[in-house]
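Protein entry
_____________
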Amino acid sequence: MTLTKNEIIAQITELGFSKKESAEYFKILLEIIKNSLENGEDVLVSGFGKFQVKNKGPRRGRNPATDDDMFLDARRVVTFKWSGKLRRRLNRAE
C-alpha cells in the first residue's frame, strides 16, 4: 500500500489542525524541500534520512522498443540515503 498526500494530510489533521491548515503546512514543507534540492542543497532529516541531488554525466543508452542506440544527456537526480535509526526500526519490524 502506498501512503498518499491526502492520507498524510488526514494524519496531520488528527493532531488537531484543520484540514485546510494541514494541507497548507504539508504544501509548505514540500516546497521547502523542493527549493532546497533545486538549489543543490542536501535535505537532512535526523532519524529519517538525507535527500541529495547528484549529477549524472551523459551516457550511451538504448531504446528498448526499437533497440536503437541513443545518447542520453547529463542530468541531475535525487537520491535518498536512510538513517541508521530508520534502518534499524524497519529491520526490527520484520
In short: The first helix runs from residue 5 to 13. The chain has two domains: 1-41, 42-94. The mean pLDDT is 94. The first strand starts at residue 43 and ends at 45.
